[in-house]
């Protein structure tokens, strides 16, 4: 290989290495193949530009050690200053205090009929198959003790329609 092509090859290695790292971080979830390839290409680019391989290897090892030390120090600083508490949920929500998650399998109620427990304006509570459900109407008012039918379920939202008995 001619000596004038080596700087171009080194630049190409740097670019491909940076691209591999960017792919690993942002785009390609995987087993680290793109990231490891990126690191190897960056290291090879450094080795191509140096005169003495020993000095290049020594510089890479020093850079790696400094990076690891700075990473450990930054983790300790973040832990000491409780910076993660500002971006994470610190309190727990308990069922006893009224917090509930949506029940899975609400679609089984579609077509079921029930009785209105609280007036629906347009939301309220209905009893269907012996179970109390939070529901919404199609948009209108439905009085207490009226009969309703579940017509749709969208996520945790149960939509009912008034069955007007003649």
Brief summary of the model shown:
By secondary structure, the protein is α+β, with helices and mostly antiparallel strands. It has helices spanning 6-27, 33-49, 53-80; strands at 113-116, 123-128, 131-137, 147-154, 157-162.
Write the layout of secondary structure elements.
Blueprint: H1 6-27, H2 33-49, H3 53-80, E1 113-116, E2 123-128, E3 131-137, E4 147-154, E5 157-162
Parallel strand pairs: 3-5
Antiparallel strand pairs: 1-2, 1-4, 2-3, 4-5
Beta fraction: 15-25%
Spatial separation of the terminal alpha carbons: 94 Å
> Helical amount among residues, as a percent range?
40-55%
Helix-strand category: alpha+beta
SSE pattern, N- to C-terminal: HHHEEEEE
* Poorly predicted ranges: none
Subunit arrangement of the protein: single chain
The radius of gyration computed from the alpha-carbon positions, rounded to a whole number of angstroms, is 32 Å
Q: Major beta sheet, specifics?
A: 5 strands, mixed, barrel
How does the overall form come out from the CA principal axes?
elongated
Strands of the widest sheet, in order across it, are: 1-2-3-5-4
The number of distinct structural domains comes to: 2
What's the overall average pLDDT, rounded? 85
Number of strands: 5
**Alpha plus pi helix count:** 3
